[in-house]
Amino acid sequence: MDWQTVASGLFPQGHTIHEHDHLLSGTGTVDGETVAVIGTTGHAPIGIEIALAQATAVLATVRANPGRPILILVDTQGQRLRHRDEMLGINSYMAHLGKCIDFARRQGHKVIGLVYDQALSGGFITSGLMADACFALPDATIRVMGLPAMARITKVPEERLTELAKTDPVFAPGAENYLRMGGLQALWEGDFAPLLAAALASDDQVDRRRLLGFERGGRKLAHPVAEAVSTGSHVGAA
């Protein structure tokens, strides 16, 4: 789904979102509340310029509009794979973006992520996954690493990974699998505006991704291991 259609559904009361070099920025109004919108489109490769531009937009919102909710619209193919970006420290730029989003949250800004098209690797980790809660459209393409690349890195045959992906969401791409793992709060279908309004109205400030992954059967050990570490007990102990 293109960003214009998504924006119209999210903000039936109007918006000022515009696109420039794969960067989305502006504001929208939902349920009488103004929301800052920052994001990407066109399967944007996240290079140093767009990472810095997003971080700048987040800090500008914190500075000019204290407490204003922030919506991050995600459509990215991940970090840009260029020697120039690597030499200039793309990892630091992306870390800076993640820190700015965390800073905004700590300053009282509700941050919501929405994957409306594609979300891959570091471009997703330092944007949508840094939000208080991340949502996605059912047809969104989400993955950290494709199975062919995973096979090269892990030395596990691609055929074996393909077989594992049929039953284990950790190996499988797609919004439904990220929902099972707890990375997504929910999938949005139908009328987007009330869904966004409800997400913004939620005052739950606890990160429940590990617990959601455990309850949904997508990540069975992250939550019990974290609980065991925090309490000094053993996994599986009474």
From TrEMBL:
EC number: 4.1.1.88
UniProt keywords, alphabetically: Lyase
SUPFAM superfamilies to which the protein is assigned, alphabetical: ClpP/crotonase
Keyword Lyase included in the entry's annotation: yes
Pfam families xrefs: MdcE
Gene Ontology MF terms in the entry: lyase activity
Name of the protein: Biotin-independent malonate decarboxylase subunit gamma
Organism: Massilia niabensis
